[in-house]
Every structure is written in structure tokens, then in C-alpha cells.
Design goal:
The structure holds two protein chains of two kinds. By secondary structure, chain A is of the alpha/beta class. Chain A has eleven helices and ten strands. In chain A, the strands form two sheets. Chain A has a six-stranded mixed β-sheet, with helices on both faces. Classes of the chains: A alpha/beta, B alpha/beta. Chains A and B meet through helix 6, helix 10 and helix 11 of A and helix 8, helix 12 and helix 13 of B.
């Protein structure tokens, strides 16, 4: 395996119990520094796959490599240093009495103490904009703020792969934007980002690559622009492409698959211009 | 239309809070409306639903000023059982609101507590399951259902009380797009065919636009905007300022300079796009800079 590979999944199968497969023969390679979205309807296997990346689940058969290391036989606490995992519901991971203690928990377990520990925690809190909330009881905060506490506690582990399970669920628009911009910033700094989402506008905006899962299998893997152009995949994945993508396709004024409003507006004006030039020249 | 619920200059402060969650709300809910309530977190949306379904003043600790009328009576003078027969509630977390082991027991739970006769309960179970289209779930364990199925069972259980109004607090937030569409279509149908009044707190405005007869935007404990969706969406700047995400279709058409004309469905949008391409009037393109 080359050094540019963050995650390599080989023939991964996972069965909850005999005969009921949550994942079937998954093969996937994610490169260092990629930002990739896992999509598909509830129960399609997105979270089950993601939980294999930090050892919360172990393959029934097949193998998962993180930074070249086979996860089999590795403890979750060891893997947590490689892969930070932010749960869909922040309340499933927050258990300390103060925001500071919550964020310090991971790096403490890594053996950090004193000034180093303090620095790590303060940095993480600063990144998520909660530096003044260190002594606050986490459940006094809003859900969006708790989501950021959960993110900070994962950031404090300084892992270079981040997995976020529906990071914007239950947040309002501003909170969602804050969280996603934060994550995009980490991606800019070279982190590998894997996020699970149902929101194709987020995928269009932030993901370089997406996989579509259905019934425990990866049914598509590619750029959002290419996958949005495949009606069959969209249907089998129970996805909903952005309204602008749909309207542009129905409008027939552009040959490309439009991802956002800016592209839509650009293309429709260009078409209008071409049309009026045709009129002038004829 | 008859007035169903009336909030008179209503303020509420939670007992553990230093600020008012609602500040002098005046709100009329009429029979047959489909109201969507939205706004940033902390705006008072959930507190508003508590005022409609009797949680305030009956269960939630805090101080209330103003009056809540359900029909002729103030809700403080009505028993919660009485309120529950007129206003049904569905909450955000599908896990948290199902209490019984089996689906049919869940639906029977409310009417049983009211002392409804077994025969009548049996017929209400049939009716609710049929209305929601989940007859096949009748014998199933509530634990084994998907999130979308759980929310439909919760709606069926609320309907078994024969309310004329449903109040739902972000019932789709944990659901995927397919589950979300199913719930919203169902609410649209209940409103249209059964004349059930719907108050729906929702962040997913894009999906809910075609069903809403009225859109209420809350901000900082007050009602900031209130009116038919097309009118409210026309105030794009105000909405963005409050932190409400415009449905993509709305923001697209306002960027194309088609203010005051907002399509609420895809076919309508298709026509407007054709018109835009043909038209000279909208957004005249500047050849020098374009």
C-alpha cells in the first residue's frame, strides 16, 4: 500500500447475526487529504461502514487498513489516534462535567499532561469558537454548540482522518454552516475528511467525491457532478439531487450537470447570450 | 374559518432560565390551516408548540403571562386529557415517544387512558392504521421499526385521540429524504382530506413549501414574519438576516431578478425558466461585462 492511502477497505463484509448482512463485500480506497461523502438512505450501511474505520466494529470477513495498519487486533483507543469519529448525536459522546474536561479526555488518554495538554485543548476549543466556554457544563449549551464540543474533543486527538456522521442533523442553518466551514477548513489543512449526509447541497458544495450505498453495498463511487447525472443511481440510492440540478436538466439550456445556484445562473445567462447572438447574426 | 387556538400577548420564561423564551406572542390558529413554523434554534419554536398542546401551563415549570385559548376556554382551565382530544402531539425523536411494545398497543394507549370503550378503541386502531397506511405494522414490535415508521406510528397514536389539530415538532429531523417525503405527504393528505389543522415546526422548508398555507418565522422569542409562503419568501433579506435558509428555488429566482414571482412547484419553475430564457424584461444581460 502506498503512503498516500488513508483508508483501504478490502472485501469487507459485516453481519449483525447469521444471514443478515449489513455490509457486503465493500472495496474502497480513500487517499490522504480527500473529502468524501457517504450517502444513501437510512439503513443502507453508511454508519456501519464508518464505524469500521475506527475499530468500533470489526469485519466479519475482509480487512480494513488505516494509514497502512490492519485494524484487526488494534484497540479502539489506539485507532482513535488515527481516526477521529464524531457521532451523529453529540450527546452520545459527551460525558464530562465541563467543556474543558470533555475536550481534554482524549489527549489525556494519549498521555499528554501539563502545558502540552492545555495547549492542545485550548487550540481545539479555539478552532470551534468555544474558547470562552471551557468551564461550562456541556448540557447548558445549545445542540449546535454541543456538536462543536464533540468536534473539538475529536480535534484535540490530532488525528489526520476525521469521520463525521451527519454533522448537521438537528442544527439550524447558521450552525450547520459553521460546522461545515470548520470541517472544510480542516480539509484545507490536509486532513482526510469522511462525512455522512443526506443533504445533496452539502455534497455538491463540499465533497470532491461521494459514494452511494444501498443494501450494504457501494453502488456508485465518483464525483458528485457525475453521480448527480445518473438517474438510476440517484433512484437506487434514494437520494434527492439539488433543485437547481433538476431544474437545469429540465430546462435544457446547458449540457453540464449543474451543482449550485451560481453555476445555474452562469449557464442560463450564457445560453441567453448565445440565443440573442444567433438572432443578431441571422 | 373558525378560530381554533388563540394566544393573547403570551410570554413564557422557563424556571431555570433568566430570559423569556416567548415574548408577547399574539397568534391565531384557524381551523384547517397548515402552518409551518421555522427559525433558528433558540427562537422559541418548541415553546410555541408547548403552548398549543397544553404542556404549558400544565407540565412545564416556568412563569407565564398572557392567555391561551382553545376554543372558548383557556387551556389552564382544561384538563390535559381534554386538550389531548383536540390537539395531538408528535415530537422530534422517534425513539423517545413510543412507550408500548407493540404498534397497536401504542395506538390504543391514549384512548385507553381516556376510558374509551374497547370496541371503540378497536375501531379507532383500524381507522388510524388505515389513514396512515401502516396496516401491515399493526402486530409489529415498536422497537423493530425504522425511524420513519416510528414517526408514522406516533402520528397514528395521536390521531387515535380524534384531535382536530396536530402539532409536530421537527418530526423529520432524524429521517432520510425518503422518510421525510412520506411524512410530509401524509400530513398534506390529512390536512386536505381529513381537514386536520397542522402546525409543523420544520427546518426543511424546501420540502414543505407545497403543503403550507401559512409560514411563521420566529426569532428571539417573537414572531418575525407571518403570512402565505410566497409573501414571506419575498422578504429574502429579512429571512437571511434572521438565519433562515431560503429554499433553493426561492433564492435562485430572486437572484435571477424575478422578485415577487416565486414558483412553489417544479412545473411552475420550468415555465418561469422558459419565460426567463425568452424574455427581455428580466435581468437584461450586459454584453460588455458578461
Amino acid at each position: 500500500m502506498d503512503v498516500m492511502t488513508s483508508v483501504q477497505v478490502e472485501n469487507l463484509t459485516y453481519a449483525y447475526e447469521k444471514g443478515s448482512y449489513a455490509l457486503k463485500d465493500i472495496n474502497l480506497k480513500i487517499c490522504k487529504g480527500e473529502m468524501i461523502a457517504f450517502t444513501g438512505k437510512n439503513g443502507s450501511g453508511k454508519t456501519t461502514l464508518a464505524k469500521h474505520l475506527n475499530g468500533l466494529l470489526k469485519p466479519t470477513s475482509g480487512r480494513v487498513f488505516i494509514n497502512g495498519l490492519d485494524t484487526t487486533g488494534k484497540t479502539v483507543s489506539f485507532l482513535a489516534q488515527q481516526v477521529g469519529y464524531v457521532f451523529q448525536n453529540p450527546d452520545h459522546q459527551i460525558f464530562n462535567d465541563t467543556v474543558y474536561e470533555e475536550v481534554a479526555f482524549g489527549p489525556k488518554n494519549q498521555g499528554l499532561t501539563g502545558k502540552d495538554l492545555e495547549q492542545r485543548v485550548l487550540n481545539a476549543l479555539q478552532v470551534v469558537g468555544l474558547e470562552t466556554y471551557g468551564s461550562t457544563y456541556p448540557y447548558k449549551l445549545s445542540k449546535g454548540q454541543r456538536q462543536r464540543v464533540a468536534l473539538a474533543s475529536v480535534l484535540a486527538m490530532d488525528s489526520d482522518i476525521l469521520v463525521l456522521d451527519e454533522p448537521t442533523t438537528g442544527l439550524d442553518y447558521k450552525e450547520s454552516q459553521q460546522v461545515m466551514e470548520l470541517v472544510a477548513g480542516l480539509h484545507q489543512k490536509g486532513r482526510t475528511i469522511i462525512f455522512i449526509t443526506h443533504d445533496m447541497n452539502l455534497v455538491a458544495r463540499y465533497a470532491e467525491r461521494m459514494i452511494v450505498m444501498a443494501n450494504g453495498e457501494v453502488i456508485a463511487d465518483g464525483r458528485p457532478r457525475d453521480i448527480f447525472a445518473q438517474p438510476k443511481t440517484i433512484k437506487s440510492g434514494s437520494l434527492k439531487v439539488p433543485v437547481v440540478t433538476l431544474l437545469a436538466e429540465r430546462g435544457g439550456f446547458t449540457s453540464r450537470t449543474v451543482l449550485d445556484e451560481e453555476e445555474f445562473i452562469h449557464d442560463i445567462y450564457q445560453y441567453k447570450r448565445r440565443m440573442s447572438l444567433n438572432v443578431l447574426c441571422s | 374559518m373558525d378560530i381554533f387556538i388563540r394566544l393573547n400577548d403570551l410570554s413564557f420564561q422557563y424556571s431555570n432560565s433568566t430570559e423569556y423564551a416567548l415574548k408577547g406572542i399574539n397568534f391565531l390558529l384557524k381551523q384547517g390551516e397548515f402552518i409551518v413554523v421555522t427559525g433558528p434554534s433558540g427562537a422559541g419554536k418548541t415553546t410555541l408548540t408547548y403552548c398549543l398542546n397544553g404542556v404549558i401551563p400544565h407540565f412545564q415549570r416556568g412563569s407565564m403571562c398572557g392567555q391561551i385559548f382553545l376554543g372558548e376556554h383557556q387551556t389552564k382551565d382544561l384538563s390535559t386529557a381534554r386538550i389531548a382530544t383536540r390537539v395531538g402531539s408528535v415530537f422530534q425523536d422517534p425513539e423517545a415517544q413510543l412507550i408500548c411494545a407493540k404498534v397497536e398497543e401504542e395506538i390504543a394507549y391514549g384512548p385507553e387512558n381516556l376510558g374509551v370503550s374497547p370496541k371503540e378503541i378497536a375501531s379507532r386502531i383500524d381507522e388510524a392504521l388505515k389513514l396512515i397506511g401502516i396496516e401491515e405494522l399493526r402486530e409489529r414490535s415498536t422497537k423493530a421499526l425504522s425511524g420513519g415508521q416510528k414517526q408514522r406510528v406516533a402520528i397514528a397514536a395521536a390521531l387515535a385521540m380524534k384531535p382536530s389539530c396536530l402539532v409536530l415538532d421537527e418530526p423529520t429531523s432524524e429521517l432520510d429524504p425518503v422518510g421525510t417525503t412520506q411524512i410530509l405527504e401524509l400530513l398534506g393528505k390529512l390536512n386536505r382530506e381529513q381537514k386536520i389543522t397542522v402546525v409543523l415546526v420544520e427546518q426543511k422548508l424546501e420540502e414543505v413549501m407545497e403543503y403550507a398555507t401559512r409560514l411563521v418565522i420566529m426569532d428571539k422569542g417573537q414572531i418575525a414574519l407571518d403570512g402565505p409562503p410566497a409573501e414571506v419568501f419575498d422578504k429574502a433579506n429579512t429571512l437571511t438576516g434572521i438565519g433562515v435558509k431560503l429554499p433553493q428555488i426561492v433564492s435562485l429566482f430572486s437572484k435571477l431578478g424575478m422578485k415577487g414571482k416565486i414558483p412553489l412547484s417544479l412545473p411552475e419553475a420550468d415555465d418561469m425558466i422558459k419565460e426567463f430564457i425568452r424574455g427581455e424584461t428580466y435581468g437584461r444581460y450586459d454584453f460588455r461585462t458578461g
